[in-house]
Design a protein that fits this description.
- This protein has 354 residues and is α/β, with parallel strands linked by helices.
- It folds into 2 domains: 4-126 and 304-323, 3-Layer(aba) Sandwich (Rossmann fold); 128-294 and 333-351, Dihydrodipicolinate Reductase, domain 2.
- The chain contains 9 helices and 15 strands.
- The protein has a 9-stranded mixed β-sheet with strand order 14-13-12-11-7-10-9-8-15, covered by helices on one side. It has a 6-stranded parallel β-sheet with strand order 3-2-1-4-5-6, with helices on both faces.
- The protein is globular, with a radius of gyration of 21 Å.
């Protein structure tokens, strides 16, 4: 089976090294050219066998010179929106770094330009992680009964320069410019946990209240802290708290509760989560512990990004088969983010519009 000629659309991106490492494990995607608005100035970000790629600062020129069938899009969200339109119109299959676009309206416009059979895959690799997949299966089996509440936290290291060390979460990055990314911590990392709440519970969000803040530095234009309250279609309530607040390290947590039981997962407990249930099938052992060790030689996202790219290839080979992370699922997350930023700005609870 022939390889799929692929373009790297965006080079100067926080996750470029990780994605290049994953591409090394997916030979079906043969990267033949790169585009970046900085052109040759971005070449320093390319490593290994990608260092010699032809790199362009003009996207139409790259497309004219190379037969491209797929693209990995790693740009600021504003630039990604601009690039995806001509790529979609050209019938090129797209794998796009999350959260894909700044707003749901922008992604809807891009989706409307896709040719039939063209894949647009949202780069939320957590859906391929064994831990949330197993938790979703327990929900589907009714182990928790009627779902009542879900909470997730993601608190990580602060934005800012650190004397004597390379820049970490450099405040000069496009990540912290409102025009380029729309939001900050909530948009860039909180999107993962919103996607996970939707995926694990299988429930849509119907209303959102939120507050955002810039707590740690005046060098950025976007939020570094956010708290979001969610009401789901089944009446379940959810809470999300995210922040760039720590000197170093990360604090993350998931909790889920229902009429028959609960689960907790503190990521500081490595890859274990605990479930307690009064489900009849669990009567002899109501508390269980599930361990998901990191595989040896794991790529980005404990191999979940590799699984995601392999599914992207499957979708292309099968003539545009539905991906696990589609325009529809990415839109749901962006609609929640839209509502959260509107709620934070207005001080009102926002009903989701579909």
């Amino acid at each position: 089976m022939s390889v799929i000629p692929t373009a790297l659309i965006g080079v100067d991106h926080p996750h470029t090294p990780e994605w290049l490492g994953v591409l090394d494990r997916v030979p079906d995607l043969n990267v033949i050219a790169a585009y970046d608005p900085q052109g040759e100035a971005a070449r320093a970000k390319l490593e290994g066998r990608y260092a010699a790629l032809p790199i362009y600062d003009n996207l139409p020129k790259m497309l004219a010179r190379h037969r491209v069938e797929a693209a990995l899009v790693l740009l600021s969200l504003r630039q990604a929106e601009e690039a995806m339109l001509p790529l979609a119109r050209a019938g090129i299959h797209l794998m796009v770094e999350k959260p894909v676009a700044r707003t749901a309206a922008a992604l809807e416009r891009i989706g409307s330009e896709l040719k039939p059979g063209t894949v647009l895959y949202a780069g939320y690799a957590w859906r391929f992680d064994a831990l949330p997949r197993h938790l979703r299966a327990l929900v589907e089996q009714g182990i928790f009964g009627d779902l009542w509440s879900i909470e997730m936290r993601w608190i990580t290291s602060k934005v800012g320069r650190r004397e004597g060390v390379p820049p970490h979460r450099d405040p000069r990055s496009w990540l912290f410019r409102r025009e380029e990314g729309r939001g900050g911590m909530l948009q860039w990392l909180g999107c993962h946990w919103i996607d996970m709440m939707l995926y694990i519970t299988g429930q849509p969000v119907v209303s959102v209240a939120a507050m955002t803040a810039r707590q740690t530095t005046g060098e950025i234009e976007v939020d570094d802290t956010a708290t979001v309250l969610l009401r789901f279609g089944n009446g379940m309530l959810g809470s999300l708290h995210v922040g760039y607040l720590l000197p170093e390290g990360t604090q993350t947590y998931w909790g889920l509760r229902g009429s028959l039981g609960w689960m907790r997962h503190d990521f500081q407990d490595e890859r274990r989560f605990t479930v307690h249930s009064q489900h009849p099938d669990w009567i002899t052992a109501p508390t269980k512990y599930y361990d998901f060790p990191v595989p040896p030689n794991a790529t980005y996202g404990r191999n979940s990004a590799q699984a995601l790219l392999l599914d992207f290839v499957r979708c292309i080979r099968q003539g545009g088969a539905a991906p696990a992370e589609s325009v529809a699922t990415a839109l749901e997350t962006l609609r929640v983010l839209d509502a959260a930023y509107e709620a934070a700005e207005t001080g009102r609870t926002v009903q989701l519009r579909r």
